UniProtKB/TrEMBL annotation:
<feature type="domain" description="DUF7944">
    <location>
        <begin position="49"/>
        <end position="131"/>
    </location>
</feature>
<dbReference type="Pfam" id="PF25642">
    <property type="entry name" value="DUF7944"/>
</dbReference>
<keyword id="KW-0732">Signal</keyword>
<dbReference type="InterPro" id="IPR057704">
    <property type="entry name" value="DUF7944"/>
</dbReference>
<feature type="signal peptide">
    <location>
        <begin position="1"/>
        <end position="29"/>
    </location>
</feature>
<protein>
    <recommendedName>
        <fullName>DUF7944 domain-containing protein</fullName>
    </recommendedName>
</protein>
Length: 138
């Protein structure tokens, strides 16, 4: 699903705060060889979780604040990230924006924002750069 190490790290960081509520039998954890901080946590039932959607949405807020919104590679990469994680939805960016406004989604956004603050500006900016690299080459 998420192919870039920084995005995987950020998602893992966000997911670590909620792991205690998920049954261990439903999770599959794998540590990459290059860095034991990169943990790929994927629910076995498939699909994207609300926590992951919230993390992606919060990244859009952070990257915009850091000035990446003007970067065409970032915009394209972000669109690709959302499309990849919300496959089957006709306009995934708008769908995610609408989801972010729903009351039952607010706790996931709050947690994702707290986790992003804990990760720090340098790591968040690196993830924004990784999103820019997701842009498809012509």
């Amino acid at each position: 699903m998420m192919k870039k190490p920084c995005i995987r790290t950020f998602t893992a960081y966000l997911m670590s705060s909620i792991l205690f509520v998920l049954p261990v039998s439903q999770l599959q954890a794998k540590t990459t060889e290059s860095d034991d901080k990169n943990i790929d946590v994927t629910p076995q039932q498939g699909g994207i979780t609300d926590e992951e959607l919230a993390a992606i949405y919060v990244l859009s807020e952070l990257c915009t604040d850091y000035g990446f919104k003007k970067d065409p590679d970032y915009r394209s990469g972000y669109a690709e990230l959302v499309k990849e994680n919300m496959s089957g939805i006709q306009n995934p960016i708008n769908a995610l924006q609408l989801r972010a406004k729903q009351k039952d989604f607010k706790p996931f956004l709050e947690q994702a924002r707290q986790d992003a603050n804990k990760a720090g500006e340098a790591e968040n900016k690196e993830i924004c750069k990784e999103i820019s690299s997701l842009a498809k080459s012509p």
